[in-house]
Design goal:
Elements (H helix, E strand, L loop, with lengths): L1 H19 L2 H8 L3 H22 L8 H37 L2 H12 L6 H18 L8 H27 L10 H20 L9 H25 L5 H7 L2 H14 L5 H19 L12
Helix pairs in contact: 1-9, 2-9, 3-8, 3-9, 4-6, 4-7, 4-8, 5-7, 5-10, 6-12, 11-12
Length: 301
């Protein structure tokens, strides 16, 4: 019985990571800039979630503190998306993605220090193994460490910080059983995030135009499937899964994104890339399945 209760949120987190791995496919087929696709992702997601809140009658008086926390969570998610896109400009999507996924180390440390989560040796071993696999998958070719690379690396690490903060705040929002909401807080943070990203796009004189029907379908899918459905699954699973394990599971997203890139866009890859996929999946399995030592029973002398 206890095993079943544990596996359900883990399965939901895995499924959520699987779904958001398609975000890179939808961004590529949206035919708009990455910043604009990020805006429409949270905007269409917010529209869907507003409708879900109306149907589920989740619009009711709630704690001002929790509402402000959700708005702050949306702001942090906006910073996460914005800083990641800046990092891509300096070091490319490969290294920027690897640096952003340093969240796994941050979440493991936070889980150990603040949530008193035990960290097994197998889990510690799985972290660098998973990161090595990501390097093999994406490939990093830096001939020399220029000033632009230093800037891009700093931005990528900032992305990891923002992403970790976002996941931890989202975990906190959904951990209160007395004020539980399936859609409301994710809706509020999506509205806040779309407001902040929309302001950034307007200030930079970028265009909100959606060029064609393919673009519209891709952007709506980004909002409804990725931002709404996938993150509803993830946000509701986060409080029931160790912070360290959640970070590890979410590494499935860049790994699967690589596979979709190969299958749908004929990305050229070699043995190193596929070896990286196997290494990451093996590291996740190692980190999730290792068992703690059974506590010793007290024996009378």
């Amino acid at each position: 019985m206890n095993k079943g209760i544990v596996l359900r949120p883990v399965a939901a987190l895995v499924m959520g990571a699987f779904i958001i791995s398609f975000s890179s496919v939808l961004v590529k087929t949206s035919h708009v800039s990455s910043s604009v696709s990020a805006f429409y992702r949270v905007f269409f997601g917010a529209v869907f979630l507003i409708g879900a809140c109306i149907i589920k009658k989740e619009f009711k008086k709630r704690s001002l503190k929790k509402n402000l926390l959700a708005v702050g969570c949306g702001l942090i998610f906006a910073f996460d998306l914005w800083v990641w896109h800046l990092s891509i400009q300096y070091v490319g999507p490969g290294l920027a993605t690897i640096l952003g996924n340093c969240q796994v180390f941050v979440l493991a440390l936070v889980g150990f220090l603040f949530f008193k989560e035990k960290i097994r040796f197998t889990f510690v071993l799985s972290l660098p193994l998973a990161f090595f696999g990501l390097f093999l998958i994406i490939g990093v070719d830096i001939d020399h460490l220029s000033r632009d690379h230093v800037t891009g690396i700093a931005l990528g690490l900032a992305t990891a910080g923002f992403y970790s903060m976002f996941l931890l705040l989202l975990r906190q929002l959904q951990s209160d059983e007395k004020d539980f909401s399936l859609f409301y807080y994710l809706m509020l943070l999506s509205v806040a995030c779309s407001f902040f990203l929309g302001g950034k796009i307007y200030a930079s004189n970028d265009s909100f135009a959606i060029p064609d029907m393919t673009s519209l379908i891709s952007l709506v899918c980004l909002g409804v499937v990725i931002q709404a459905l996938a993150w509803v699954m993830i946000s509701n699973a986060l409080p029931k899964v160790k912070a360290s394990h959640a970070g590890l599971i979410l590494l499935l997203q860049p790994t699967l994104s690589f596979i979709w890139d190969v299958l749908f866009f004929n990305r050229q890859t070699g043995m190193a890339g596929w070896t990286g996929v196997v290494v990451v999946l093996g590291a996740i399995y190692l980190g999730m399945t290792g068992k703690d030592k059974a506590p010793e029973t007290n024996k009378s002398p």
